[in-house]
Fold this sequence. Notes:
Helix content: 40-55%
Structural class: mainly alpha
Oligomer: single chain
Radius of gyration: 14 Å
Number of strands: 0
Low-confidence stretches: none
Mean pLDDT: 77
Order of helices and strands: HHHHH
Amino acid sequence: MIALVNERFVPVxxxxxxxxxxxxxxxxxxxIAGNVNPDGYVTDxxxxxxxxxxxxxxxxxxELLNPQLETVAGSFESLRRHGYFSYAQxxxxxxxxxxxxxxxxxxALTACAP
Length: 114
């Protein structure tokens, strides 16, 4: 997993208690119900205390490559179809598969590009 991340990804840690979110539209989907002020800081205590996500984005930051439906039913559909929750609760045993799925999605997006 470390080799794959080092070769194919640019990992970025964002401490949402101290740093604003980057202005990337794909991150809004990951927040779901989190509140963000105009300066990009997450302001609700629930998100500040329990928000831990692995968001895999396209290089331009506009597409989420490990999307999850934003409902409970959608979350369970992701679990049923892929065997894991895409970004909200990926277990260690499923993380590598999630990364490979994200790379497959990126390849499909590239193949469809004009």
